[in-house]
Specification:
Helix content: 25-40%
Function: Decomposes hydrogen peroxide into water and oxygen; serves to protect cells from the toxic effects of hydrogen peroxide.
Radius of gyration: 26 Å
CATH topology of the largest domain: Catalase HpII,  Chain A, domain 1
Bound molecules: NADPH dihydro-nicotinamide-adenine-dinucleotide phosphate
Strand content: 15-25%
Structural class: alpha+beta
GO biological process, one term: hydrogen peroxide catabolic process
GO cellular component, one term: periplasmic space
Keywords: Heme, Hydrogen peroxide, Iron, Metal-binding, Oxidoreductase, Periplasm, Peroxidase
Distance between the termini: 66 Å
Main location: periplasm
CATH architecture of the largest domain: Beta Barrel
Order of helices and strands: HEEEEHHHEEEHHEHEHEHHHHH
Number of domains: 3
CATH class of the largest domain: Mainly Beta
Number of helices: 13
CATH superfamily of the largest domain: Catalase core domain
Length: 500
């Protein structure tokens, strides 16, 4: 006891026993006055917070962003000053699985970064893919419903997925990436990360540039085929946690090179005229041939969380957390996420989620929000609790105002997707695949389509045909092979059952 801290109640009083509840006699009933027992049980009941509706299962670590190049002609953000080193947090995740889901599943991976800059937190909340399934937030809840459980069977539904995808050809690009070799990274360090959306940055002269963020793995790409992933999952559902935690504990710090693609404001008009794609469409990339990658620096993860729950489960990333020199774009999905992410955190964690240690900026925070659930550290000047005031409270700084957007137009519900070419970019990707990659892509799709009604399969095959004749033909062949294999397997099962 001499060198150990004393166990206390949450109110700080020493506890005499943590072994036996207080009863009437050794066999008697438990007394209500055993407030410490009640406190313990009540706390246990409140140990879980609502899991994220998407990206529930995650793994994360702290690290540093080192800026090695000079990109100040594009952005005045202090985080991009040459030589700047910024503390950061990364959280990787799967999208569809619940918290107990296996790590090595075929799914898109979240790639969320929080940079604790000297001018507030900058969060880049992206994925390991440069595009997404849908380009309008109106479709997002419906899309996610297709990835989650069927209301009646409580099972994942391949029919729902392919029904939705085949009715939304804008998803074809992301579906092709998901079903390709890169659909199951071996661990979080072996994949790229992308901001995915188009954001904007501006320089000291007030010139704005549209921007895409890229983080390329320095560990090299490594991925599982389905059979390998099945073996991994059979042994451990926590393979990503084990890998990421283990490599950082061993001092093998994973690194990514950070790049940007930059498009001067105004050029999006020519880009769309030339390519037919909106520069703000999350289902499309900017080809590197048109907008080459510009190196910014390097990100390294080098510290494991002390407490998973408070550092990773309660970490709250918001695309709306930007800092002077970094801003938004008209990307519709980004605009939707600017609302939905902070809203999710207020619901999951509480009004003052930004005051929790992991989310708290390292730069000073001064605002006039008051009270509410657990307002940690809101100790402002007591007389300056409204604004404007004459008592020395914090004031706005017009020098950090962003340059005006040139975007203006008529309000409406525009369907740009109907007129957009959704096939060329998946074709460019398909053409990069060698014979083996194509074969695995088609086999993965055939496997994922099992049990899907024929009219949905046919509708999706028509999309693959439009991407590339070999893509549609490859999936048809893979379906045939699979149907034959399934028939043979069920025949041999019935033969052996008969023999018994
Ligand atoms: P590029 O030839 O310049 O390649 C673009 C990127 O494709 C590279 O950064 C590379 O990432 C990635 N890539 C290479 N092999 C694969 C693969 N098997 N699966 C997924 N990605 C791969 O082409 P474009 O810029 O003209 O784009 C062509 C297609 O590449 C796009 O339609 C898109 O599907 C895909 N792509 C494009 C990206 C972009 O921002 N332009 C980003 C990622 C993919 P790495 O160097 O890490 O291998």
């Amino acid at each position: 006891m001499a060198d150990r801290e004393r166990l206390t109640t949450t109110a700080g009083a020493p506890v005499s026993s943590n072994q036996n509840s207080k009863t009437v006699g050794p066999r008697g009933p438990v007394l209500l006055e055993d407030f410490q027992l009640i406190e313990k049980l009540a706390h246990q009941n409140r140990e879980r917070i609502p899991e994220r509706v998407v990206h529930a299962k995650g793994w994360g670590a702290f690290g540093t962003l080192n800026v090695t190049e000079d990109v100040t002609k594009y952005s005045c953000a202090k985080v991009f000053r040459p030589g700047a080193k910024t503390d950061m947090l990364a959280r990787f995740s799967t999208v569809a699985g619940e918290q107990g889901a296996a790590d090595a599943e075929r799914d898109v991976r979240g790639f969320a970064l929080k940079f604790y800059t000297e001018e507030g937190n900058w969060d880049l909340v992206g994925n390991n893919t440069p595009v997404f399934f849908v380009g309008d937030p109106y479709k997002f809840p419906d899309f996610i419903h297709t990835q989650k459980r069927h209301p009646r069977t409580n099972l994942r539904s391949a029919t729902a997925m392919w029904d939705f995808w085949s009715l939304c050809p804008e998803s074809l690009h992301q579906v092709t990436i998901l079903m390709s070799d890169r659909g199951i990274p071996t661990d979080p360090s072996r994949m790229n990360g992308y901001g995915s959306h188009t954001f904007s940055i501006w320089n000291d002269q007030g010139e704005r540039f549209w921007v895409k963020f890229h983080f390329k793995t320095q560990q090299g790409h490594a991925h599982f085929v389905n059979e390998e992933a099945e073996k991994v999952i059979a042994k451990s559902r926590e393979s990503y946690q084990e890998a990421l935690y283990g490599m950082i504990e061993d001092g093998r710090f994973p690194k990514w090179t950070m790049y940007i693609q930059v498009m001067p404001e105004g050029e999006e008009v020519q880009f769309e005229e030339k390519t037919g794609w909106s520069a703000f469409d999350l289902t499309k990339v900017w080809p590197h041939g048109m907008y080459p990658l510009i190196k910014v620096g390097e990100m390294e993860l080098n510290r494991n969380p002390e407490n998973y729950f408070s550092d990773i489960e309660q970490s709250a990333f918001n695309p709306s957390n930007v800092v002077p020199g970094i801003g938004f774009s008209p990307d519709k999905m980004l605009q939707g996420r600017l609302f939905s992410y902070p809203d999710a955190h207020r619901y999951r964690i509480g009004t003052h989620y930004d005051a929790l240690p992991v989310n708290k900026p390292k730069s000073p925070v001064h605002h006039y929000h008051r009270d509410g659930e657990m307002p940690f550290g809101l100790r402002t000047n007591p007389d300056a609790y409204y604004e404007p005031n004459s008592f020395g409270g914090p004031v706005e700084d017009p020098s950090v105002e962003e340059p005006p957007h040139r975007y203006a137009g008529q309000v409406g519900r525009y369907d740009f997707r109907g007129e957009t070419d959704h096939y060329s970019q998946p074709r460019a990707l398909f053409e990069m695949f060698d014979a083996g990659q194509r074969e695995r892509l088609c086999a993965n799709i055939a496997g994922a389509m099992q049990g899907v009604p024929q009219f949905i399969v046919d509708r999706q095959l028509a999309h693959f045909d439009k991407v590339h004749a070999d893509y549609g033909a490859g999936v048809r062949k893979a379906i045939e092979v699979q149907t034959r294999d399934d028939a043979e397997a069920s025949l041999s099962t019935s033969h052996s059952a008969a023999a018994e």
